[in-house]
Design brief:
- By secondary structure, the chain is mostly helical.
- Helices cover 78% and strands 2% of the residues.
- The chain has 8 helices and 2 strands; from the N terminus they run H-H-H-H-E-H-H-E-H-H.
- It has a two-stranded antiparallel sheet.
- Helix 1 (2-26) packs antiparallel against helix 2.
- It is globular.
Amino acid sequence: MITKSIPNLITVGNLFLGIVAIILVFNERPDLAAIMVIIAMLLDGLDGRVARALNAQSEFGKELDSLSDVISFGVAPAFIMYVVAFQEMMPAAAWIVTALFPICGALRLARFNVISGTPGYFIGLPIPAAGGVLSTLALFYEDIPVAVLLASTVVLSYLMVSNIKYPNFKKVGIPRGSIWVIPVVVVIAVGLGLIFSEHLSKIIFVPLVIYALYGLKKNVSRRLTGRKSRKRRGSETADDKKESEHSA
């Protein structure tokens, strides 16, 4: 019974870190708040793998995971960005954009739970990745204009509810015999986060934003390729018509 509860305990840890991140940012520690979101991402990536390794998957765990994700990767990153960058803006715009992010995250999770996607891909930017990008992007508030941060928040919100495909790495499993390594990995991650809180989150921002842009690039490339192929087919059809008219 205890073994079956391990994945849910990891998910609760994810939720706990999201709440801690909100508390930290209101205590003027956005760097540590961003680290809490990053560590929550690590736990979010582990709970499903542990559940599969222990054969402990359940609908309860699935729903708990979604609710935790809304807090840790929707509400917490939105508050981090709001506190460090949006408070000096016009209140209406700041409130709307801050609320938009977790709302789109919740919509994305609801869609994920009821619609089967393409094997090996997520439809829309996963909320953990979006939350990771937003919470680490907020740390650059002194170097990036508020208008850019505002636009970035809106773009990330859109990417979550879009139909853009993103690679799914969650299916990579963990052997049952290697589960004991998980607490060690989490402890090391927490230790590194606390020691290098000012730099680690900014470093992690780079691969996260690359992942977010990757799906966008693939979608644009696919659309351009589709247009070219349609134009090519259209020109071939026109040429065929001309040849038939000349032969006639």
